[in-house]
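hey m, so remember when u said the tokens were messed up on ur end? i reran from scratch. heres the input so u can diff it against urs
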Amino acid sequence: MAVEGQVLRWPRNQSEVRVSSSLLGGVTTYIESQGGGEGLFPTQIASVNITRSYQQRMPMRLIYRPSLCVVVQGAKEILFGEDTLRYGAMECLVVSMEMPASGRVVDASPQAPYIGVTIDLDVTMLREVLEQLETPPVPPATPGPCVFVGKVDEPLSECVLRLIRMSQTPKAIPILYPSVMREICYWLLTGPQGAELCSLAVPESNFMRVAKAIYFLRANFAQTLRVEQMAEVARMSPSSFHQHFKQLTSVTPLQFQKQLRLLESRRLMVADAASVEEAAYKVGYESASQFSREYSRMFGVAPKQDALNHQRMYSQYASRKARTA
């Protein structure tokens, strides 16, 4: 089901076109300085990454962290649960809680490649900025999925561009990065979807209780966990916890755990050259055959073949990461 009501459209004026061109130029210059091509481009700022693709891409399953994902050129879709959000040039996806989803590039070509910038959000700074707002946004009474799409206006675009330029001057990052991140938090919290985002920064809300359980789940995903254990961490009843967890992430707690296991197993096979059996046991599976069945069901390909498919991309990424270290 496509979710159009959460996608903000706006008339493009000359100012916004100039901002888009400036950001596109700045990001493209950075990519070319790293050798050009396509794929994932890390920066000197650990929380900032750039992606360029010359063609449409099949869905990639990930656990999305709290982040701001800006499309500079082209378009992308994110599928979470039964819903789909599409966002294009000078639009952004904001994810306010860790959640499993599939992202795919839907508009790209060699002449006009897809270009996106992903910035991890600093939750502590978000909370500090929220506390300083004269009129802070009020979280919705009934929170829905913790993801939305909005426009990238001039102030937000300028922040992204400053981060890209800053990454080319490593000594400036510790001094200047915090101020730019504070500014990003300000524009997001005072924007049209500030109410949804501020739930991430309100202590003892149901949102934050579920978030605590997710942190616990991420740290212990290889163990056998019960919903009651996670509900206790969240300080909620099992039934209330299960309801709020699925409402916010679009999956049940045990489905979330399974996806964490399978994604970590992929990382082990691709980055650490683990065998299928080694990866299965390390993430908590007792049966390699059950692991292979569930892996193939989630990713659409057998574990060994999937690892081979991703090793080239990882090798390219690791090489770029080494150059920025």
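this time it looks ok to me. The chain has two domains: 14-201, 206-321. if urs says something different then somethings off w ur setup not the seq
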